[in-house]
Amino acid sequence: MSTQPLQVFEKSRHDYVTNVDRLLDQQLSQGIAGLFPQDGIITEENAHSRQSFQSDYSRFWFIDPIDGTSDFIHGKSHYAVMVGLLESSQPVAGWIYAPDLDQMYWGGLDLGLFQNTGCVLPDAVASEPEIAYTPLILKEPTPPSQSFCPVLIGSTDRRCYGEAIAHLIPEAQFTSIGSFGLKVMEVICGRAGLYVYLSGRVKLWDTVGPIALARAAGLVCCDLAGNPLRFTPDAIEPETLTHHQSIIIGWASYVEALRSRLQKAVLLS
Questions:
Q1: Does one domain contain both 257 and 218?
Q2: What confidence tens digit (pLDDT) does each residue in 206-262 have?
Q3: How high does pLDDT run on average in the chain?
Q4: Residue 153's beta-bridge partner residues?
């Protein structure tokens, strides 16, 4: 795969796909279908697969072949290959692999959380190799204060809401990286206290895997009003599988301290 020249195609305005996305999409779909033929499989690059979300499968696998395609195209490191398992409308397992960082995270509610390095992506599904892994050690960050309040927010949301958020939460220290999944891992690993997503474009293949890991870590996953995130068809736009809800993923101390002010900032913007 790495020997093929990179080709970039525009799906829509500011939304790109590469030949690598499409190849990974196909390989992962085939591998998972071979292992779990009774389950539904929905992928970012197979638009027809989205129709199955309205079917009666009890389990769905969601595949994002490259989460953070812009970073991948521009030679940056913070992109990831992601797979998530939704069972009875709940995220229960996730798998996030960052090739440039040589890091994989995986686990779920009944599995625990694990990490490993040195994995070879194409074999991971096809032949189930023996891969060394270690439990992921959780480290809750220091509670927010005037001198320490690391918050992850995407560049689009920061342009739209950053000024209002900074006014209401002056202690917030904004950071960002490319991939949705890797942002969630920054929170899980304690390098940020909270991640907020507001721009209304995130889809199920972006969220199921990372949120399964976040829930396994004991993080709060809610919207700006404090309602739990929902994955039932009535909470998802049927054609694009976009979430209707805003998204907050964070440690309880950060969500408790910041959520209402984030909500107010959005209303004032």
A1: yes
A2: 999 999 999 999 999 999 999 999 999 999 999 999 999 999 999 999 999 999 999
A3: 91
A4: 196
CA distance 214 to 194: 11
Block residue for tokens 């996730």: 94
The answer to whether the predicted template modeling score (pTM) of the entire model surpasses 0.85 is yes
Residue 221 lies in a domain: yes
Burial 76-113 (b: 16+ CB within 10 A, else e): ebbbbbbbbbbbeebbbbbbbbbbeeebbbbbbeeeeb
Q: What pLDDT, on the 0 to 100 scale, is given for residue 208?
A: 99
116 and 209 within one domain: no
- The average pLDDT across 18-46 equals 95
Mapping DSSP onto H, E and C, the string for 15-44 reads EEEEHHHHHHHHHHHHHHHHHCCCCEEEEC
Distance separating alpha carbons of residues 204 and 61, to the nearest angstrom: 10
- Identify the three-state secondary structure at position 152: strand
| Residue 247 and residue 207 share a domain | yes
Q: Are 144 and 257 in contact (CB under 8 A)?
A: yes
Distances (CA, A) of 30 to 26, 63, 181, 207: 6, 11, 22, 21
